[in-house]
């Protein structure tokens, strides 16, 4: 993980309090609110914002929030359900590779312009690196490229030889159901104009989803409400 920017430097030069920035970014990523909805909501609370300002905040701060929350991430299990779903970028379909474990915890995700062997391999490498351990079992649908990616990674010793590969539509209902939480927020955004912006925004949406699923161990400080602004400010602190 890249080095964290000092919290004061992170918000240096901003014309609004960091609490306002955190609130706008979190609400945009978590709820089905448009940028203009947020402008109206914040105006009722005092701050006068432009929708483009909030969009710039999302692009700037979502990656930083992800890095800081990931310090508290719980490891997922080693039985992975893997599937791809679709996201529209500049009017064309892109592919969001995702995996959850048998308990429904998010393992990892990766947005790709293509759906092929190379893209599947890139996803598995990213997921293994983020978890620190390779899966013992991988359950996928019948898409040939994803199965070939696993076989080739075993040959190249990027996956253990004893990793079990299964094809089961029934077992993969878990990941397909989990897609809905991400797609419902993405669909409300009516598509992305740039691939980079799509990847950044989706990373923030996945973070919100992981928080809802209790995938972070906030033992210091001991706070019960993992969506409260106080928790966000604590996590963002450089401790």
UniProtKB/TrEMBL annotation:
Record's Gene3D superfamilies? Ribonuclease H-like superfamily/Ribonuclease H
Q: Does the keyword Zinc-finger apply?
A: no
Question: Highest taxon of the source?
Answer: Bacteria
Q: Name one GO biological process term.
A: transposition
Pfam families, per the entry: DDE_Tnp_IS240
Entries under InterPro entries matching the protein: DDE_dom (IPR032874), IS_Transposase (IPR052183), RNaseH-like_sf (IPR012337), RNaseH_sf (IPR036397), Transpos_IS6 (IPR047930)
Provide the DDE domain boundaries: 78-215
Keyword DNA-binding among record annotations: yes
Alphabetically list the UniProt keywords: DNA recombination, DNA-binding, Transposition
Q: Which GO terms describe its molecular function?
A: DNA binding
Task performed by this protein: Involved in the transposition of the insertion sequence.
Q: Which NCBIfam families match?
A: transpos_IS6
Name of the protein in its database record: IS6 family transposase
